[in-house]
TrEMBL record:
Keywords of the record: Cytoplasm, Elongation factor, GTP-binding, Nucleotide-binding, Protein biosynthesis
A Pfam family recorded for this sequence: WHD_2nd_SelB
Protein name as it appears in the record: Selenocysteine-specific elongation factor
Origin organism lineage: Bacteria, Bacillati, Bacillota, Bacilli, Bacillales
Classification via NCBIfam families: selB, small_GTP
Tr-type G domain boundaries: 1-173
Major subcellular site: cytoplasm
GO terms for MF: GTP binding; GTPase activity; RNA binding; translation elongation factor activity
Subcellular location(s) per record: Cytoplasm
Length: 630
């Protein structure tokens, strides 16, 4: 079974409600005021069944200019529009405005129905038909079928049903495997039932008993019961009009424009990137930078500021395409590809329509680069958009990519699997990145290590934590760590304790200071076990402070010297010779006095030396003597 949404639009009193009743048998004017005034005030709904297993919900859209907000809400998400023109009046102001609305909302197919045909003669009917075709000639609906109907006598209704059926056959069936999205257009209470919401399922499916969320507001509710055109049903699918009896929330907490969802695929946003197209004719020709406007998306409308990046105002040309951003005063729920209409606040007038390019977005600078970015979002094929997103955000989850691009997780999952298999993308701990990002980061890490080795030739490498921290402003830490592991596996780098270095790198004295460093080492060797404070020795050299720090670390790490304490270091040969002398005369144990006699050292140098032997586990202290461990 395929489900579709049709809208009946046109000027007030052109017979839309009568036509809807002729097609469906349902009088969509339910309100007392509608009966009294004989005009539609609220959106009306009625089901229609076709023999080719198609079902459609018809929305009877008010034609009065005061109800233009409701007309926009009703026209959002239509699969097929029926534009009504009364034979005795012809094309009127709201005819033009409603055609403009469905054009701006990207409705793909229309049928024009000339109603009240019994009020004119054949010649007049032919003239109105020619006028309609001329009216549509310069629009994207040029060539639309024109059907003549009289809703009272039912003349032409069968032909219209046949034509509608043929048009619906050309429309692809909806994917019910996408995440649920149902914009709310009516909220009320029923005695004995409680809160009821109505709307059209734009995406996915819904089941009686299901827990769902209302956004914005993050209200968690349960679907107690569900009706499809007054018939209780357990399941509803994209393209159907449904009423949901929900629990967990009062009517006062819900309003038209909120959206029922079943996952966190959809989120609330207040900033959207858009491509808009100006209308054919305007009374007021200018929209200024940061001007407050009204935005209509689905069943919601909100005020907000329009932000241009290549101009300071719109000086109108008909059908001009403009890339811009809208910063809304209130959060909305939408996705990439949704249609919208923009209207001036004062005086009220529709000035543009368009599509959403991105819903999770940031503020951008004024200029050509921002326009190029928005053009890419609009024009690039799906794979290029995917790579572009990952090059900008570095790493994203499957869900985030689906949200940004505006496709289902099921679809993006298949695409990501293909891209990973072909090497275009890489998966890292449940997130994805572009191979171009990986290559860029690999080169950056290797260059950073090479530069570090040049600047610190005596260090064993850069501390891993320091390396990750230095890159984390540009790249996620998980991605950096993954690159380090890959480079290690590829034998391009290696880990030395807490440090990272280029494979086969060995610290060595830099040529410009090598002689001075060797001289310092020789001086330390000459001083035996009675050295001057190490900082004093180094300060007398020509080495600068930065080099001194690296040099001291290096000669300790390499075992050239051994540190007795914060003040003194001793050449390893002097340590070795002293141990040899002590063992020669005292092969099992010795006292401080024994060591002093053999080594001829004052306590100032002797005690630090002996404590050093204890720390090295060469000796161990037992009472007043030291015993050799080996």
């Amino acid at each position: 079974m395929n489900f579709y949404i049709m809208g009946v639009l046109g000027h007030i009193d052109h017979g839309k409600t009568t036509l809807t009743k002729a097609l469906t048998g349902v009088d969509t004017d339910q309100l007392k005021e509608e009966k009294q005034r004989k005009i539609s005030i609220e959106l009306g709904f009625a089901p229609i069944q076709f023999q080719n297993n198609y079902q459609a919900s018809i929305i009877d859209i008010p034609g009065h200019e005061k109800f233009i907000k409701k007309a926009i809400a009703g026209a959002s998400g239509l699969d097929l529009a029926i534009l009504v023109v009364a034979a005795n009046e012809g094309i009127m102001y709201q005819t033009k405005e409603h055609l403009e609305i469905i054009s701006l909302l990207s409705v793909q197919r229309i049928i024009v129905v000339v109603t009240k045909m019994d009020l004119v003669n054949q010649k007049e009917l032919e003239i109105i038909t020619i006028n309609i075709k001329n009216f549509l000639k310069d629009t994207r609906f040029s060539g639309a079928k024109v059907v003549h109907v009289d809703g009272i006598s039912y003349r032409g209704v069968s032909e219209l049903k046949h034509r509608v059926s043929k048009e619906l056959e050309k429309i692809p069936s909806k994917d019910i495997n996408t995440p649920l999205r149902m914009p709310i257009d009516q909220v009320f209470t029923l005695r004995g039932y409680g809160t009821v919401t109505r709307g059209t399922l734009y995406d996915g499916k819904i089941t009686s008993g299901q827990l769902v969320t209302i956004l914005p507001g993050n209200l968690r509710v349960k679907v107690k019961e569900m009706q499809y055109h007054n018939q209780i049903t357990k399941n509803a699918y994209a393209g159907q009009r449904v009423a949901l009896n929900i629990s967990g929330v009062n009517k006062e907490n819900i309003k038209r424009g909120q959206v029922i969802v079943d996952s966190d695929y959809y989120i609330s946003t207040q900033t959207i990137d858009v491509k808009i197209k100006t209308v054919n004719s305007l009374r007021y020709k200018k929209i200024k930078q940061h001007e407050h406007i009204m935005i209509h998306i689905g069943t919601t409308n909100s005020t907000g500021k329009i932000i241009f990046f290549d101009r300071n105002s719109i000086e109108f040309l008909p059908n001009e395409e403009i890339y811009c951003q809208i910063r809304l005063d209130n959060p909305i729920v939408a996705k990439k590809g949704d249609s919208l209409i923009l209207r001036k606040l004062s005086p009220t007038e529709t000035f543009a329509g368009g599509i959403i390019l991105q819903t999770q977005t940031n503020k951008y600078p004024f200029g050509k680069e921002t326009i190029k970015k928005l053009v890419r979002l609009d024009n690039d094929p799906l794979l290029e958009q995917l790579i572009s997103l990952l090059e900008e955000h570095m790493m994203m989850t499957e869900k985030q990519l689906a949200q940004y691009i505006g496709v289902s997780e099921h679809y993006i999952s298949k695409l990501l699997s293909k891209c990973v298999a072909s090497g275009v993308l890489t998966s890292v701990k449940g997130q994805y990145t572009a191979q171009t990002v990986m290559n860029q980061l690999r080169s950056l890490v290797l260059n950073k290590l090479r530069n570090y080795h040049r600047q610190h030739p005596l260090k064993y490498g850069i501390p891993k934590a320091e390396l990750i921290s230095s890159l984390s402003e540009l790249y996620p830490p998980n991605l950096i760590l993954n690159i380090l592991i890959n480079l290690d596996n590829d034998k391009l780098i290696c880990f030395r304790g807490p440090n990272v270095c280029i494979k086969n790198f060995r610290p060595e004295f830099p040529s410009e200071t090598k002689k001075e460093m060797i001289k310092v080492i020789r001086n330390l060797e000459k001083q035996g076990l009675e050295p001057a404070p190490v900082l004093e020795i180094l300060s007398q050299s020509s080495l600068n402070n930065c080099v001194i720090k690296d040099f001291l670390f290096y000669i300790e790490k390499e075992g050239v010297v051994e540190r007795l304490n914060d003040k003194y270091v001793v050449h390893y040969k002097n340590i070795k010779e002293s141990i040899y002398l002590l063992k020669k005369y005292y092969p099992y144990f010795f006292t401080v006095q024994d060591a002093k006699k053999i080594l001829k050292l004052s306590r100032k140098y002797l005690i630090p030396f002996l404590e050093h032997l204890d720390r090295k586990k060469v000796t161990t202290q037992e009472s007043s003597k030291r015993v050799w461990i080996e």
